[in-house]
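Work Package 4 report. The design task specified in the project plan requires that, given a folded chain encoded as structure tokens, an amino acid be chosen for each position. We show below one input record used in the internal validation round.
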């Protein structure tokens, strides 16, 4: 495995999801004990990621409230929005990626290991209907860009 590992997470005030998605717990200075889950197993995170791919929401800066993040890129070439019933029917965790399968043969591919490379629509794999990409810093301080997620197998425009 090469490149930085990435795990989208979400946190809750109460333990309420299955243990297979639990990453751990933490103590927040204001909110107290929090349960941290692998976001790939969270329907809210998946819905928001689809909204980002489709352009219905903007990526937000992680350090400044109510500020778009200009380093996050996205594209969507589907004929319409993702199906309203885009519900994950199977999750396949691999060493380098997680595949979220949904009805209508759609798949959301989340990269767990980031690799520098183009994140423009022209560089997407065949069958891609959209993507989310962005930038990160390598250990030597170099800023690079690459793909974070790819939506595949939706009807094309």
């Amino acid at each position: 495995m090469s490149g930085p590992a990435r795990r989208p997470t979400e946190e809750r005030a109460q333990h309420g999801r299955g243990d297979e998605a639990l990453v751990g717990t933490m103590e927040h200075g204001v909110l107290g004990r929090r349960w941290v889950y692998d976001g790939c197993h969270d329907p809210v995170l998946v819905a928001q990621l689809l909204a980002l791919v489709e352009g219905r929401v903007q990526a937000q800066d992680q350090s400044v409230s109510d500020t778009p993040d200009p380093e996050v890129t996205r594209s969507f070439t589907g004929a319409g929005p993702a199906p309203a019933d885009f519900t994950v029917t199977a999750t396949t965790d691999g060493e380098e990626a997680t595949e979220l399968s949904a009805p209508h043969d759609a798949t959301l591919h989340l990269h767990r290991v980031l690799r520098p490379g183009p994140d423009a629509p022209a560089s997407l794999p065949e069958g891609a209907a959209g993507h989310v990409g962005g930038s990160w810093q390598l250990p030597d301080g170099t800023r690079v860009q690459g793909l974070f997620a790819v939506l595949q197998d939706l009807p094309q425009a």
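The chain has one helix and nine strands. Validation will be extended to a larger panel in the next phase.
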